[in-house]
Amino acid sequence: MRAEEIRARRRLMASRGAKQTFTYVGIILMSIWAVFPLFWMIIISLKERIYTYDPSVWIFQPVFENYVSVFAEKNLGKFLINSAIVSLSTTFLALFFGTLAAYGFSRFKVKRMRGLMFFLLAVRMIPSVAIVIPIFVIARFGSMLDTRLLLIITYMIFNIPFTVWMMKGFFDEIPKELEEAAKVDGCTTLQTLYKIVLPVVQPGLIATSIFCIISSWNEFVYALFLTSIKSVTTPTIVQMFLSIQGVAWGEMSAVGTVSIMPVLLFAMIVQKNMVRGLSFGAVKG
């Protein structure tokens, strides 16, 4: 019996080792699959400024003329500033109004709340091309075309519903007794929200803000149709590198590399809180 138990344990350990090996191999392959496009784009941005790109060239002398060109000739810095102002303003306003609405949906009895929540979800799911023309016409009559304010208002259309849905889930996980205790101590509803509830759902706020920033930073359709010169954002300048000569792959890749760095840096800084926010309420004691 002793020998049989030892063999059974060895088989069990071998089986677990094989499963762990397959798991690690799968994770490595998925990571390579996800990171390789970024790696490829960076490589292209370090090659010479040519219109005929040869993907078979792996050994070359890295140059930075593409980055110099997009900043000096294409004025990339101005577009990055536009994207930053629009994205940060949209995220702040969406979090402010969306959080208040989500708290109201979570804590107060609202008539037809399910219908309202699904209406917000439907607004979030509307394709951009379906409403960009009406927005363009309204903005034209209001003399708001090619302004940052127009982009901020437009981006809020799909960021506020997303914020409401995200934050309502976080608020639902907070025990109401915590707020009742604060009100017994003399706090008003707004004071309870500001001093008690928001610090608890801070990871959720950070996770929601990351998604809002990413969606606003990468938005293309609205920025393309509603801006022309003064308020152009980074994603729309890709069309500058398309010409009758061909595609300026190096400069296009340089713009892509530079444009993703701020979002990646922000995500790395708040990574811990983002993971906590996405897993908030997933495990109950």
Structural notes for this entry:
The protein is mostly helical and about 280 residues long. The protein folds into 2 domains: about 1-45; about 65-280, MetI-like fold, CATH 1.10.3720. It has 12 helices and 2 strands. Strands 1-2 form a two-stranded antiparallel sheet. The chain is flat, with a radius of gyration of 25 Å.
* DSSP summary: helix tally: 12
How many strand segments? Answer: 2
CATH architecture grouping of the largest domain: Orthogonal Bundle
Radius of gyration of CA atoms, rounded to a whole number? 25 Å
Q: Class of the largest domain in CATH?
A: Mainly Alpha
Beta content comes to under 5%
* Structure classification: mainly alpha
* CATH-defined topology of the largest domain: MetI-like fold
What's the arrangement of secondary structure elements?
Elements: H1 2-45, H2 65-72, H3 76-107, H4 113-125, H5 128-141, H6 148-172, H7 176-184, H8 189-200, H9 202-218, H10 221-226, E1 242-243, E2 246-247, H11 249-269, H12 271-278
Antiparallel strand pairs: 1-2
Helix pairs in contact: 1-11, 2-11, 3-6, 3-9, 4-6, 6-9, 7-8, 9-12
